[in-house]
Design brief:
Protein name: DUF2752 domain-containing protein
Shape: elongated
Low-confidence stretches: none
Helix content: 55-70%
Order of helices and strands: EEHHHHEEHHHH
Distance between the termini: 89 Å
Structural class: mainly alpha
Largest sheet: 2 strands, antiparallel
Mean pLDDT: 80
Radius of gyration: 26 Å
Number of strands: 4
Number of domains: 1
Number of helices: 8
Length: 187
């Protein structure tokens, strides 16, 4: 069985692809990526091919895929000292699609910075849209139940305690302060 790379056109047997350890590791990483991102990973890697016409080495592809996997797995996206935004898988997938469809003029790419910039812009747009919807609902008088807010923020919130409850907890947990009966001698 012959396999053809859709990005570079290389033709090899399935055994040849699977014999190279770096090639196997690359395919494993692509398979572990979220579906929306993994479908675009190989065409995205084509943007890193050298201008000399040589194919991208498996070692370089492995390095790039590991970096991409880390970027997609991070909790947030940040670009150029801008505030961090929540990481969105669709922001990465859409950013990859945009970069593939409209690559920068100075190819080959050397780092993921251009992709990071586009993904950040998309995540920022998503956050702004969420914030506009939240403000619109708030102005309309819709009170968010605690469960709705918890889902919106990732579900990591704990119930909020009142000041009185906090004071009770402090009184229970703090040992009572007793004035010493004598002064210590430090000399």
């Amino acid at each position: 069985m012959k396999l053809t790379c859709p990005s570079c056109g290389a033709v090899h047997s399935a055994e040849a692809w699977s014999n190279d350890a770096n090639a196997r590791q690359c395919m494993l990483i692509v398979a572990e990526l979220p579906t929306e991102v993994s479908r675009r990973a190989i065409p995205y890697l084509a943007l890193f091919r050298p201008t000399s016409g040589r194919g991208l080495s498996w070692t370089k592809a492995l390095k790039l895929l590991k970096e991409l996997k880390d970027l997609v797995a991070d909790a947030s996206i940040q670009w150029d000292r801008s505030p961090a935004r929540a990481n969105q898988i669709m922001a990465w997938a859409d950013a990859m699609e945009r970069v593939i469809q409209r690559p920068p003029r100075d190819l080959p790419l050397t780092k993921h910075n251009y992709l990071r910039k586009v993904a950040y812009q998309l995540a920022d747009e998503i956050d702004q849209g969420d914030e506009r919807n939240f403000n619109r609902r708030e102005r309309a008088g819709a009170v968010l139940p605690a469960e709705d807010f918890s889902e919106r923020s990732g579900g990591d919130l704990e119930p909020v305690l009142s000041v009185e409850d906090m004071q009770k907890i402090r009184k229970k947990n703090l040992p009572s302060y007793k004035k010493p009966s004598h002064r210590p001698n430090f000399t």
